[in-house]
Design goal:
Distance between the termini: 47 Å
Radius of gyration: 19 Å
CATH architecture: 3-Layer(aba) Sandwich
CATH superfamily: Vaccinia Virus protein VP39
Structural class: alpha/beta
Number of helices: 8
Largest sheet: 7 strands, mixed
Order of helices and strands: HEHEEEHEHHEHHHE
Shape: globular
Strand content: 15-25%
CATH class: Alpha Beta
Strand order of the largest sheet: 3-2-1-4-5-7-6
CATH topology: Rossmann fold
Number of domains: 1
Length: 278
């Protein structure tokens, strides 16, 4: 097991993360969150903030909120709203904030980054105020099609299989989004909701919003798939860099194939810490 982040940390990756922000917000109906939080949140935590774009947008939208974004990497801008700040921190390390502190905790895209989800969700429970909400937005990159247009022996299906296998070896199983609702309920959260959205790859959907999301994800899968793949496949599957690059050529070909109507699931899961008795 390697105690490190599985993906790169450079300008190209920062641009990819900002593009993912645009795509995922659009997938959610041009919204930053779905949890029914109050109109005047006070203390907000954005775990794994990345470039900080979600935290900045949230701070602009809610001037009442004191928004802190945390990440292992210091890639956030210095020009930010006065009610937003960033800290270098590991979400799986001991938290230094007081318990019963945050009104709302948000995370997005912790795929292949967390090794102990029950422990992390327990931390969010302890550090939320009674009645506070936590919300997860997570990809489950198992590709499917509803019209059998995705051949079972396609490179895209094979990439998905290899990615899941590598994530287990890495110690951060990407199957985790399927278990978030159960873990939250076992931790003690109430009013837990799980929404599973189809995230298309390519421009094949007829619905305009999904078509735009599919175009975003096609760019992500063609331009960003190397960043998502090389370290995991070379370290965890013992593939050579040359083997990975050759394989990714076939994956990109599938992604661009207009006859393949592929998608994967995007999980939106939120719940609240039980409020104090009235």
């Amino acid at each position: 097991m390697w105690l490190e982040y599985a993906f790169p940390n450079d300008e190209a990756e920062a641009e990819r993360l900002d593009m993912q922000h645009a795509m995922q917000s659009h997938l959610l109906g041009d919204r930053l969150f779905w949890a029914p939080i109050t109109e005047t949140p006070q203390r907000v935590l954005d775990l794994g903030t990345g470039t900080g774009i979600w935290a900045i947008d949230f701070a602009d939208t809610f001037p009442s909120a004191d928004v802190v974004g945390t990440d292992l990497s210091s890639i956030q801008p210095t020009w930010v709203p006065p009610n937003c700040r960033f800290e270098i921190d590991d979400a799986e390390a001991d938290w230094t904030w007081p318990e019963d502190h945050f009104d709302y905790i948000h995370n997005r895209n912790f795929v292949c980054a967390i090794r102990d989800w029950p422990a992390l969700i327990q931390k969010t429970y302890q550090h939320l105020v009674p009645g506070g909400w936590v919300e997860w937005h997570e990809k489950h990159p198992e590709f499917s099609s509803d019209d059998n247009s995705l051949p079972p022996d396609s490179a895209l299906v094979e990439w998905s299989r290899k990615f899941f296998e590598a994530s287990v070896t890495f110690g951060a199983d990407v199957d985790s989004p399927r278990h978030l609702k159960r873990i939250m309920e076992e931790t003690g959260f109430v009013d837990v909701e799980e929404h599973i959205l189809k995230l298309p790859v390519g421009s094949w959907p007829r619905e305009p919003r999904l078509k735009r999301c599919g175009l975003f994800e096609m760019v992500n899968m063609t331009q960003g798939i190397q960043a998502l793949t090389v370290m995991l496949f070379t370290r965890c599957l013992n593939m050579t860099p040359e083997e990975v690059e050759l394989f990714l050529m076939s994956v990109r070909k599938d992604v661009k194939n207009k006859s393949i109507h592929s998608y994967y699931n995007f999980y939106v899961v939120f719940g609240r810490k039980p409020p104090l008795p009235s």
